[in-house]
Automatic annotation (TrEMBL):
<dbReference type="InterPro" id="IPR006015">
    <property type="entry name" value="Universal_stress_UspA"/>
</dbReference>
<dbReference type="Pfam" id="PF00582">
    <property type="entry name" value="Usp"/>
</dbReference>
<protein>
    <submittedName>
        <fullName>Universal stress protein</fullName>
    </submittedName>
</protein>
<dbReference type="InterPro" id="IPR014729">
    <property type="entry name" value="Rossmann-like_a/b/a_fold"/>
</dbReference>
<dbReference type="InterPro" id="IPR006016">
    <property type="entry name" value="UspA"/>
</dbReference>
<feature type="domain" description="UspA">
    <location>
        <begin position="164"/>
        <end position="287"/>
    </location>
</feature>
<feature type="domain" description="UspA">
    <location>
        <begin position="7"/>
        <end position="143"/>
    </location>
</feature>
<comment type="similarity">
    <text>Belongs to the universal stress protein A family.</text>
</comment>
Length: 290
């Protein structure tokens, strides 16, 4: 049996409303794809030299609260999809490390856009951004409206940013997700620079050339997924704006990620970082295969 076809979906929860939406999305995707679901709650116990934490029973109380969060998530998952096999685990570690350490053995990791950290988390870099930067498997950061982010099946659209750099990981993820949910794929290639009337003839020629390149890029996947409708679009704007605009009508936006050492914004890449920050729907960040 192909182990790739049996890998579970991993979802991180922390009891926040954002994590609840991520859980609902992950359960729906596990049901669509026929996968197991593994729920993870990471508890980071602060150092004991901080005030109050040295008092007897404080750590045990934190663990009890964490177990309640995990139990509530497990019950919600089973209620939403009784046929999905669900497991759950509490890990004493930072959430980013706990999820990234387990990312190699899963189909995808699902996280909420905002956790318990609130405004401070947004300033310092959210768990979602940290996992999207460091995961070895695709990461879905669930954000946007309740109906869209729930991940229900139906006629919809998966928009994927295509850089035409020869790496098909993001494109393959988009086709597989669209096939599972009965949706179409829209490939988006952003051509930098404004569209000027004086250059209309040249830009029309460039657009035609780029559209042919997009067709060639996803030709093998059209053969693998013949029932998935595909449209191609060349957008004369920067990639972040193009993907954020696409997110307003899409059920899921997919972007690639190449490894870049350095801080999160650089490692994730400006396109991935900007899309995760500003998209109106869930965003899948897919690491490159090379």
């Amino acid at each position: 049996m192909n182990t790739h076809e049996t890998r579970p979906i991993l979802v991180g929860v922390d009891g926040s409303p954002s994590a609840g939406r991520a859980l609902a999305w992950a359960v729906a995707d596990a049901e669509r794809r026929g996968r197991r679901l593994h729920i993870l709650h990471a508890l980071e116990i602060p150092p004991y030299d901080l005030p109050l934490l040295g008092a007897p029973g404080v750590a045990d109380s934190l663990r009890e609260g964490a177990m309640r969060v995990l139990a509530d998530a497990e019950r919600a998952a089973r209620a939403q999809a009784p046929d999905v096999e669900v497991t759950a685990k509490l890990v004493e570690a930072h959430a980013v490390h706990a999820l990234c350490d387990r990312s190699a053995g899963v189909l995808e990791t699902v996280v909420g856009h905002r956790g318990r950290g609130g405004f401070a988390e947004m300033l310092l870099g959210s768990v979602g951004l940290g996992v999207a930067e460091g995961s070895e498997s695709p990461v879905v950061v669930v954000r946007g409206g309740e109906g869209r982010s729930s991940g229900r099946s139906g006629d919809g659209e998966v928009a994927v940013g295509l850089a035409l750099d020869g790496d098909d990981a993001a494109l393959e993820f988009a086709f597989a997700e669209a096939a599972a949910r009965g949706a179409s794929v829209r490939t988006v290639h952003a051509a930098l620079g404004p569209r000027l009337a004086v250059d209309a003839m040249r830009q029309n020629a460039d657009e035609e050339r780029l559209l042919w390149a997009l067709l060639e890029a996803h030709a093998p996947l059209r053969k693998r997924f013949p029932d998935v409708p595909v449209t191609e679009s060349v957008v004369w704007d920067d990639p972040v704006t193009a993907m954020v605009d696409a997110s307003r009508t899409a059920d899921l936006v997919v972007v690639g990620r190449r490894h870049r050492p350095g801080p999160v914004w650089r490692a994730l890449g400006s396109v991935g970082h900007g899309t995760v920050r500003h998209a109106a729907c869930p965003v899948a960040v897919v690491p490159a295969t090379a």
